[in-house]
Each structure stands twice: as C-alpha cells, then as structure tokens.
Design goal:
By secondary structure, the protein is of the alpha/beta class. It has helices at about 20-30, 45-55, 70-85, 110-135, 155-175, 195-200, 205-215, 220-235; strands at about 10-15, 35-40, 60-65, 90-95, 140-145, 180-190, 245. The chain has a seven-stranded parallel beta sheet, with helices on both faces. It binds nicotinamide-adenine-dinucleotide. Nicotinamide-adenine-dinucleotide (NAD) binds near residues 20 and 195.
Length: about 270
C-alpha cells in the first residue's frame, strides 16, 4: 500500500466494483489515505483478495459480496457498514457493466441488465446511503459515469444511455441533499487500462484509435481515477457538488481535427 496520507482519515467508505480495475485501485487508495473501506463486488472472492492485500499492508478493509443492482443487497451493504464501522461517510458507486451492440443487435434483456447495474445501482446506493450519511451530519457520494455519457458513442448504446443517466441522476441527487451536507458528484473516465479494456485493446485498430483520441498520448491508469475519487471523497472538495469530473487525458477537449493547419501562406510560416 502507498504511504498513508491522512486525506480520508477517520472516514468510513464503501467502494463498489472493488474486485477489479478502478474500484480495486480506489479501495486501495482510500485505505492508503486513511479510510476504513468496505470493498464490495458481486465476485466475492475478488474482494476478499483486495481486502486481504489492504489489511496485510496496514490498512483497514472489509470484503462484502453484493449485487449492486439488487435492492436487498444494497440495503444490507449499508446496514453492514453502519453496523460494523459505526456510520458511513463516503459511497463510491463504481460497479458497472457494458454490453456491446447497436439497438438492433442488443436484446431487451441487455438493456435491462446494463440499466440495472449502471443506473439502478446508483439510485439504490443513494436511497440507502442518504439516511446513514444524514445521521453523520453529511457525506460524499461519487458515481462512476463515463465520457460515453457525454458523447454519442456508437457500438454500446445501452451503456452510453446508462452513463448519461448517471450524470443527470448525480445532478438531481446533489440538489436534493446539499442542504443535508451530502455532496454528490460523478467521474467521467476516458479509456482506462482495466482488465476489460486491456482485452478490448488487444485489437490493434482499437488501440490506435484510443491512443490518438487522448491528447496525452496514452490510456489512463485506474490509479488516476482513484486519485480523483479520493479528492471528491475528501473534505478538500467541500464546495463541489452536482459535478461530473472528466478525467480523460484531454479526449473530450480534443477536436476531431486535432491541431488546425497553419493558414498563413507558405512564405509567411
Ligand atoms: N475502464 C474504462 O475505460 C472505463 C471508462 C469509463 C467508465 N468506466 C466505468 O468504470 C467502472 C469500473 O469499470 P472497470 O473498467 O474498472 O471494470 P472492471 O471490470 O475492472 O471492474 C468492475 C467491477 O464491477 C463488478 N461488478 C459488475 N457488476 C456488478 C454488480 N451487479 N454488483 C457488484 N459488482 C459488480 C465486477 O465484478 C468488477 O469487479 C464501471 O462503472 C465502468 O463503466 C470504465
């Protein structure tokens, strides 16, 4: 584990999707920043490994198997956290899934699954976390959206719709709960080198397009999203709510033209 920073000292946090990728990096980062972490994933064995790694290196983590699309699981996730750790300060609703395809190719079951795992989970997380945070005098909810929620990315239409929903759900939640000291923000990652993305990038054409799209010239690391999440979780971001923080190596800012050609006549260049 990285050196403890104290940024999240004494905070009780939940990270969903903590068995892999961005969630795993965030659980480790939150613990390194001093938080107690409930590491949640549908793949319980994965979060047991992640929690062991955190505890072995001096942090505090509890693994929990749960399906974040299921109301009973999410209610139990919050109750377990409050029961074992005395309250809740931070919920990072990060678990997500994708089904590739156009509207014609995708099934209604695909749509329902993606919307349940990506959007219903965020609603359920807030539904059960808000009362626990209110008891504590406030808190921070962070939801993982995507740059796919800002663009009309083709090839995964349910996913794009679900991530746009996460961004506006985040705004609406922030409006309702700001008066209770509960901040709600989203993060929109660019292409981040997590296990599913690494598999996608085995296709050289996909890798080339993705590298070219990020002005920084490389893909992001899970730890770079974890750093943004830690900031939003912390009191350092105390005046930030209802926002979606784009962490994308310059992808969204970049024009499809890249740099414009020099308009001056050749003799004047
Ligand atoms: N990697 C990227 O480039 C990228 C970009 C933008 C947004 N995102 C979003 O970031 C989040 C994390 O993605 P990742 O790339 O780290 O993927 P990942 O597959 O490495 O991790 C996702 C984790 O979520 C868990 N999960 C899936 N469904 C679940 C459920 N119903 N209940 C509980 N856990 C569940 C999985 O088991 C997995 O461990 C997702 O919301 C994803 O949409 C990722």
């Amino acid at each position: 584990m990285a050196e403890r920073t104290g940024l999240l000292e004494n905070k009780v946090t939940i990270v969903t999707g903590a068995g892999s990728g961005i969630g795993e990096a965030s659980a480790k980062r939150f613990a390194a920043d001093g938080a107690a972490v409930v590491a949640v994933d549908i793949r319980e064995a994965k979060v047991q490994e992640v929690a062991s790694a955190i505890n072995d290196s001096g942090g505090h983590a509890i693994p929990l198997g749960a399906n974040v699309a299921e109301p009973a699981d999410v209610e139990a996730m919050i109750a377990e956290t409050v029961g074992q750790l005395g309250g809740l300060d931070v919920l990072f609703s990060n678990a997500g899934t994708i089904r590739p395809g156009t509207a014609e190719e995708l099934s209604v079951e695909d749509w329902d699954l993606v919307m349940a795992v990506n959007v219903r989970s965020v609603f359920l997380g807030a539904k059960y976390a808000v009362p626990a945070m209110r008891d504590r005098g406030g808190g921070s909810i962070i939801n993982t959206a995507s740059i796919s929620g800002l663009h009309g990315d083709g090839g995964a239409v349910c996913y794009a719709a679900s991530k746009a929903a996460v961004i506006n759900l985040t705004r609406a939640l922030s409006t309702d709960h700001a008066g209770e000291g509960i901040r709600v923000n989203a993060i929109c990652p660019g292409t981040i080198q997590t296990p599913p993305v690494k598999r996608m990038m085995e296709n050289p054409a996909a890798l080339e397009v993705n590298l070219a799209a990020h002005s920084i010239g490389r893909l992001g690391l899970p730890e770079e999203i974890a750093a943004a999440a830690a900031w939003l979780a912390s009191d350092e971001s105390s005046f930030v709510t209802g926002e979606h923080l784009v962490v994308d190596g310059g992808l969204r800012a970049r024009s499809p033209l890249g740099r414009l050609a020099d308009p001056r006549p050749p003799s004047k260049r």
